[in-house]
Write a structure and sequence with these properties.
The protein is mainly β and 155 residues long. It contains 1 helix and 8 strands. An 8-stranded antiparallel barrel has the order 1-2-3-4-5-6-7-8. Strand 4 and strand 5 form a beta hairpin.
Length: 155
């Protein structure tokens, strides 16, 4: 009887741990302003997540009619690289205690700065993205929505 009770307890603990990870951040996400889409994918040792810009509401510079570039990058040699496919999130690792992806970096091409960041799944289709300097209490949260895959032939 004691063995059965311990087995049941272990099963419940395993199910509880799995429930915390039921919502995956993998996929394409729209920022809260609707100006960019970021694809979250596995990278590094494949236990980490990264993100790259895959869509811009205005992909071309209005003055040159050329693709927008990373013109505010602090490294001058990178200022001519296109924003599309630019990696903006790096090295997020899952923390089961906090039930979120953290210890990563997020780059903001609008100001050329890089911040510490974490991703917190609010629901299956909504995610908190927080960038901060130093402590996560001091920072700014954005809420991204999952982009639904387009069905071939749908308008």
């Amino acid at each position: 009887m004691k063995h059965l009770f311990l087995t049941l307890l272990l099963c419940l603990a395993t199910i509880g741990g799995a429930a915390a990870q039921t919502h995956s951040p993998l996929g394409v996400w729209k920022d809260d302003a609707g100006e960019t889409h970021v694809e979250i994918y596995r990278c590094g040792n494949s236990k980490q997540l990264c993100g790259r810009l895959v869509w811009l509401s205005e992909p071309q510079d209005s003055t040159t009619n050329l693709p927008k570039t990373d013109r505010r990058n602090p490294e001058p040699e990178k200022r001519n690289q296109p924003l599309l496919n630019l990696v903006v999130i790096q090295n997020l690792s899952y923390d089961p205690d906090d039930e979120r992806w953290e210890d990563g970096r997020i780059y903001d091409p609008m100001n050329g700065r890089t911040y510490s960041c974490y991703l917190n799944m609010v629901s299956k289709d909504r995610m908190e993205v927080k960038g901060y300097i130093g402590f996560s209490l001091i920072g700014r949260s954005h809420y991204w929505s999952r982009v639904k895959p387009q069905v071939m032939g749908a308008k």
